[in-house]
UniProtKB/TrEMBL annotation:
Record field: transmembrane: 12-33
Residue ranges annotated for the Aminopeptidase N-like N-terminal domain, each copy included: 69-268
Cofactor(s) the protein needs: Zn(2+)
Marked site: Transition state stabilizer: Y466
Protein's name according to its UniProt entry: Aminopeptidase
InterPro entries, per the entry: Aminopeptidase_N-like_N, Aminopeptidase_N-like_N_sf, ERAP1-like_C_dom, M1_APN-typ, Peptidase_M1, Peptidase_M1_aminopeptidases, Peptidase_M1_dom, Peptidase_M4/M1_CTD_sf
Species this protein is from: Synaphobranchus kaupii (Kaup's arrowtooth eel)
Major subcellular site: membrane
Length: 904
């Protein structure tokens, strides 16, 4: 049928009559109006104030608009998971929930932007504070990395004004270790158990409920969890009382309601639903501290060590910061599956089991130290990160760098005999130097606009943020004095508590502390150079003339940047006191502090308090090496390690000859300290990685001190990995005895890793090590073999072995699409995987494969591994160049040492 409109003739006539009548009336109105105008002239209408048109379209970037500010959430969650599955139950990984967010409108708008990811939001309602429902004319889930849910209203929200957004939603709990996820484990050897856990950092609260998921959008949270009978629910705050019960389809459910939290960021929200977990509880003044774990671990006392030190560290921090821990409870829980090492959720800190549980006689000293360090790190976050939070993720170092630095103070309080503060030079400074010497490094504080997407944010969880952040804070504390630094931190925390800050706020408080002590240091002027620039300088000193200069240190190239730092340098001369100098020019400049007296030596960067490397003229290097050989104890132990580490890396960057670097190790036969030996072994390990595929490579007592125990481990590892007969015979004997009688294991806990690994290589049980690296890689993705959270570290262990490296790389390359899809959105670091399987790359062929790998995959598929891949390419280029230039020199040096040792 053709389209059209048809009317009758009668109707048409009626329309004509009505139209004519209306026209006549309109003419009469015009005549009357004109008469009124003549009688009374009208005045102009008042001028209305100009209004700003409301912007349309998407926000200009991936950030939430600042129109709306959340104040309080009410969140109800119901995970349908069965903690224990029987023959009559079907497991469910679904969850449902509803939430109300109370927010303030600070700028009139008719659009609400909120985060939501992987949720089916099936109900939305907006009301004002009087309960009036506002009409929603549309909503859109953004198909990009913003994860925005846009809600469009018919009328504009008024400013100031208070409003409520109610939502109902449903989702699926996966095993991806992010958002709300499922963990599966065994109890009583073969009984399957399931539990629910959460991991919101950095951007996964939006996977649990619609929320304003940015760190500056702090709010109070009221959480209620409905969970299966016999399970326990934990969250950030205490329960309001015993769980209520209800019946649904003949099944009993618990409803646990929690007290409101303190004002905090969404990424700190946490909850657990578990079956039969036990706990150890201790009251420390105002705070009830509980350590939770699987029942067999609690019964065996594996949580005792963590429980014994947590309260002491907490009290030490309260004293150090002069601010009490603000919550009435602190729960710590060991989870069978957890992507990070631990997470600082306020009031409910979550850990991997290896980071919280200690088994006397089985766990090594390094395990014990690791547990203490992780606990101290997470407790430091209760102030730095939780109480005071960075405004945006570009200043993540304000949280993670501080927690790393402060953790050494916390551990030192509970075990001063460990001298843990000295180990920061090995654990953090020397390690991060390697990454920060690449042109693909990044500043501690990036520009906000450069950190937008979840992938951008994820890449910031690296050694620059953690270790360099800690190193520059240590340098600053030494520069202005520890007491002034502490005073500034106290006022910083007090003034910004329950709020957000950036590094400029920190500088302001530290400067006030400096001024109060009548100091002359300019905190902002000095520290801005370390925060806003990537990399670090090498300080070059000529002790004959007193000349000193600085230059951006890069391993593989001359820096194209005109970087200049304000460098605090502690200088030590033969037989004289240490002095502090500030180098605030590029130089070279001449200063008496750097000129040697007579035939004496000069040592710069005493105790490595500065974040830089030092190079000297040849004469000073010779004098330092001679003094190390004759009287090494005159030089601080940290600097003995520093001299070795600086020399090897200066040689890699072609500042000095590689033989000079190798010569720094010759005095070690007289030095039994751990730090210089570990520095040497790490740098010699680079030689092994470069040359172990070439012709260049060729009953005990447990020491009392921590570092001496580490030395013992190193001695066995190095001797056996180089096939020294006495070591391999000892290891074979111990390993075979353990295989024959595993119950009566005589191998000390500290040495198990070294003896087991080398025992597999050398023992009579040839079949033990026959499984190929490729086969091992394949089983990683089967969770009953190796847990998902351990897959990356296991592949990296395979890659550390010269025979396993190519197998691990081939596996990662061939399976990358699956790996990036499975792990790319989680907190498991793809960057560490790429870094691990490419450490040994030093040939043109391997560089070609890396570039081909990069071309085969679109950049966004690398997610948090994008920067790591760029760094792997840069590092491989540097390795190729270094091997070509130094292979023969290194071979000749080692041959010469062998001849010397034979007495020829």
């Amino acid at each position: 049928m053709p389209k059209g409109i048809f009317i009758s003739k009668a109707l048409a006539a009626s329309v004509v009559v009505v139209t004519a009548s209306a026209l006549a009336s309109f003419l009469v109105m015009i005549i009357i109006f004109q008469e009124q105008i003549r009688a009374r002239e009208p005045v102009p209408p008042p001028t209305m104030p100009a209004t700003t048109a409301e912007p349309t379209g998407l926000p200009p970037n991936m950030r939430l608009p600042k129109d709306l500010v959340p104040e309080e959430y009410e969140v109800f969650l119901q995970p349908y998971l069965y903690a224990q599955v029987t023959n009559i139950t079907n497991q469910s990984f679904a969850f449902t929930g509803h939430s109300v967010v109370k927010f303030n409108c600070v700028k009139p708008t008719s659009r609400i932007f909120i985060h939501s990811k992987d949720l089916n939001v099936n109900f939305m309602q907006v009301t004002n504070e009087n309960g009036t429902v506002l009409h929603i004319i549309g909503s859109t889930f953004m198909e990009d990395e913003s994860n925005f849910l846009e809600i469009v209203l018919r009328e504009r929200l008024r400013a100031p004004g208070t409003y409520y957004l109610r939502t109902k939603f449903e989702g699926e709990m996966l095993d991806d270790l992010t958002g709300i996820y499922v963990s599966q484990y065994l109890e009583n050897v073969d009984e399957k158990r399931f539990m629910v856990a959460s991991q919101m950092q950095p951007t996964d609260a939006r996977k649990v409920f619609p929320c304003f998921d940015e760190p500056a959008m702090k709010a109070v949270f009221r959480i209620t969890i409905m969970h299966r009978e016999s399970t326990t629910a934990l969250s950030n705050a205490k329960e309001t009382g015993s769980p209520e019960t209800t019946e649904i389809d003949g099944e009993t459910w618990y409803i646990t309601e929690f007290h409101p939290t303190k004002k905090m960021s969404t990424y700190l929200l946490a909850f657990v639903v578990c079956l039969d977990f036990g706990s150890k509880e201790t009251n420390y003044l105002r705070t009830a501290v509980k350590t939770w774990a699987r029942p067999e671990a609690i019964e065996a006392g594996h949580a005792d060590y963590a429980q014994s030190i947590t309260g002491d560290i907490l009290l030490a921090y309260e004293e150090f910061f002069n601010i009490n821990y603000p919550l009435s409870k602190l729960d710590q829980i060991a989870l069978p599956d957890f992507g990070a090492g631990a997470m600082e959720n306020w009031g409910l800190i979550m850990y991997r089991e290896t980071a919280l549980l200690y088994e006397e006689g089985v766990s090594s000293t390094s395990n014990q130290q690791w547990i203490a360090t992780v606990i101290a790190h997470e407790l430091a976050h209760q102030w730095f990160g939780n109480l005071v939070t960075m405004k945006w993720w570009n200043d993540l170092w304000l949280s993670e760098g501080f927690a790393t630095y402060i953790s050494y103070i916390g551990v030192d309080k509970v075990n001063p005999t460990w001298n843990i503060k000295d180990l920061m030079v090995l654990n953090d400074i020397q390690s991060v130097f390697q990454v920060d010497a690449l042109a693909t490094s990044h500043p501690l504080s990036s520009k906000e606009e450069d950190v937008q997407t979840p992938a951008d944010i994820g890449q910031l969880f690296d050694s620059i943020t953690y270790s360099k952040g800690a190193a520059v804070l240590r340098m600053l504390s030494d520069y202005i004095s520890d007491s002034v630094f502490q005073a500034g931190l106290r006022t910083y925390l007090k003034d910004h508590q329950y709020s957000n800050a950036d590094y400029k706020d920190l500088w302001s408080h530290l400067q006030k502390a400096v001024d109060a002590k009548q100091g002359t240091e300019n905190v902002k002027e000095v520290m801005t150079t370390w925060i806003e620039k990537m990399g670090y300088p090498v300080i070059t000193i000529n002790t004959k003339t007193g000349s000193v200069s600085q230059k951006h240190f890069l391993l593989n190239q001359t820096s194209p940047y005109k970087f200049m730092w304000h460098v605090p340098i502690r200088v030590m001369k033969t037989g004289q006191k240490v002095i502090l100098d500030l180098l605030d020019v590029k130089g070279p400049v001449t200063k008496t502090a750097y000129k040697a007296v007579d035939d004496g030596w000069i040592l710069a960067n005493v105790n490595c308090t500065g974040y830089f490397r030092v190079n000297y003229n040849a004469e000073n290097w010779e004098r330092l090496l001679l003094h190390l050989n004759n009287s090494h104890s005159d030089i601080p132990v940290i600097n003995r390690g520093q001299l070795i580490d600086d020399a090897f890396n200066l040689a890699r960057a072609k500042y000095i000859n590689v033989t000079l670097a190798l010569n720094t190790t010759k005095y070690l036969s007289n030095d039994m300290e751990y730090i210089p030996w570990e520095s040497a072994l790490r740098n010699l390990d680079y030689f092994i990685l470069m040359f172990d595929r070439s012709e260049v490579y060729g009953p005990y007592e447990v020491p009392e001190s921590l570092t001496a125990q580490y030395n013992q481990i190193n001695a066995i590892s190095v001797a056996c990995s180089n096939d020294l007969p006495k070591c391999t015979e000892m290891v074979k004997g111990l390993f075979d005895n353990w295989i024959d009688d595993p119950v009566n294991n005589t191998i000390h806990a500290n040495l198990k890793s070294a003896i087991y690994c080398n025992g597999i290589r050398h023992s009579r049980g040839e079949g033990v090590g026959n499984r190929s690296g490729r086969d091992t890689c394949r089983i990683l993705w089967t969770q009953d073999k190796i847990r998902k959270m351990d897959a990356v570290s296991t592949i990296n262990y395979i890659a550390r072995n010269v025979d396993g490296q190519s197998l691990a790389w081939d596996f990662v390359r061939s399976q990358w699409s699956y790996i990036s899809e499975e792990y790319g959105g989680g907190i498991v670091s793809l960057g560490s995987l790429i870094d691990g399987v490419t450490q040994r790359f030093s040939t043109d062929f391997e560089l070609q494969k890396l570039r081909q790998f990069q071309e085969e995959h679109a950049e966004d598929t690398f997610s948090s591994g994008t920067r790591a891949l760029q760094q792997a390419i840069e590092r491989t280029q540097a390795n190729i160049k270094w091997v070509k230039e130094n292979k023969q020199t290194v071979l000749d040096w080692f041959r010469g040492q062998h001849v010397e040792s034979q007495g020829f």
